[in-house]
Amino acid sequence: MSEDGIRRSGWRRSDVLRSHLILIVNVEKVFCNSV
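The structure assignment produced for this chain is given below.
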């Protein structure tokens, strides 16, 4: 996510990193289950 996107959403950087990590984990789970 770009800094402009972070500023527009109003999230703190820690919240962005946490949600990004959760998103990656969920995508990996779905990908592993579908393969």
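Interim note for the steering committee: The radius of gyration is 12 Å. The first helix runs from residue 3 to 9.
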